Amino acid sequence: MSIVLPVEGFVNVARLITAGFGSQLEFGFEAIDDLQLAIELALRSVPARDGYATVALASDADGLTVTISGAEEQPLDQRFPDGAEGLDLLSCLGRLVDSVDVVEGTPAVVLRKNRDAARVVPAA
Amino acid sequence: MTSTGSVSETDRRALLRAYREKGDVAARDRLIESFIPVVRSIAYRYAGRGEQIDDLEQVASVGLIKAIERFDLDRDVELMTYVFPTVVGELKRHFRDRGWSVTVPRRLKELHYRLSRLIEEMTATLGRSPTIAELAEEAGVDEEDVVEALEVGRAYASRSLSRALDSDEGAGAELIDMIDDEEHGYEAAENRHLLATGLKALDERERRIIQLRFVEGLTQSQIAVEIGISQMHVSRLIRRALERLSEEIVDR
User: Touching check for B132 and chain A: CB below 8 Å?
Assistant: First the structure.
């Protein structure tokens, strides 16, 4: 499914939908929360199209893929500097989900949370 | 001379002096114990406002420890007169900083509190984070209710801890000064150019949590144990810190 929503003030909508998908996939609470955090971070970072961004969620047997896309006229790489020396947005996203891909041109951030990893969050 | 229970003001000052001058931790513990009835009494005054009494006692105890750490033995002031407003101030800040930022139905508030506890308990029991379905079953509600209650928990404000304290709240310093003076890992992080600009916008505890989560790769549960707060509170602090970091990065 795909929704177009304002990047300001409607992030909770994306969170709720994500929690629903995560629940269906039997993700642990913490994995869902991490994925929600990643989506929030991506939504705040993609260049919005007239204040809107698109969030697309696709689940399969192995996990959940969330694609956040924004305005085409603004390159994404300026918002996601590839800081190899330290922690940047991509690094943060990488800690929250199992894989992060940046699609130039669209532009879009593709987040992937795998079911097995999401189920096995180690306890403290 | 004031005396509460069997410990007099003179005894208390002696215990505090032993702790301060000789590092006598046992003396400090005895001092803390001597104030427990007082702390409980103060905490009960704040019961019935939507918080568990155990949590209030814990918050009040933090205030007591801060008072003991900060009390100036050279000043001609009784320890009790310093402890009381400091503990009250800690409780006031608890409600001010962690109150609900929007109107939330009581049913969801109560479910949120229950879930917060269940998450802690079930994470320990299961050895992993519980699923929404497991939480729903344990709480006796629908999965949808769990998702909704967890979402409204985002409205449970965790405001800036860097505001100066009111003079009537005890210490006259910034709260962040009281939380954690430990510089664990900060210098190393900054040396790695770890979002140096953005990190300066965070307070010390937020920086530490970001360090633990995104550099050292600890889970929220592990950070909760490390910092001594709940997993859901860790989540809120990470969310707030990421908001600030994101703003810094996008604005630069």
Answer: yes
